[in-house]
Amino acid sequence: MIEERTTGFMMIQTEQLAELQKSKKQHIRAQILPFLVAVLVVLMGAFLFTFYKDQQQQRLNLRQATDQTIQDLMASEIRHDISKLSAALEVVIRDPILAEA
């Protein structure tokens, strides 16, 4: 009978100990979880900010490269047109019939 009481008492203590450990785990989770969520939010914000700034810089670089390419193409086309007009003028100047007119 004493053994039954002791065994029953030990079972109650074991159950209480398990509940206490479970309660401690939940308490630790409750303390750590908000901190982890805050850290994740800050890290996500930092990533998004960095990504946004990088995209803005890439867009600016692309715009500058495009503008430079357009300027180069326009200058090349103008030089080509000038050379065609110069050749046509040379033909007009060298032609004796056109020179008389």
Using only C-alpha atoms, the radius of gyration works out to 43 Å
Number of strands: 0
Q: What about the largest sheet?
A: none
Report strand %: under 5%
Task: Give the low-pLDDT segments.
Answer: none
Q: What sequence of helices (H) and strands (E) makes up the elements? A: HH
The coarse overall form would be rod-shaped
Number of individual domains: 1
Overall helicity: over 70%
Label the structural class. Answer: mainly alpha
Q: Which whole number gives the mean pLDDT?
A: 85
Question: What oligomeric assembly is this protein in?
Answer: single chain
**Number of helical regions:** 2
Taking the alpha carbons of the first and last residues, their distance comes to: 140 Å
Explain what you see.
This protein has 101 residues and is mainly alpha-helical. It has one domain (2-100). It is 97% helix and 0% strand. It contains two helices and no strands. The mean pLDDT is 85.
Essential attributes:
97% helix, mainly alpha, 2 helices, rod-shaped, 101 residues, single chain
Sum this structure up briefly:
The protein has 101 residues and is mostly helical.
Compile the SSE list and pairings:
Layout (H helix, E strand, L loop, with lengths): L1 H93 L1 H5 L1
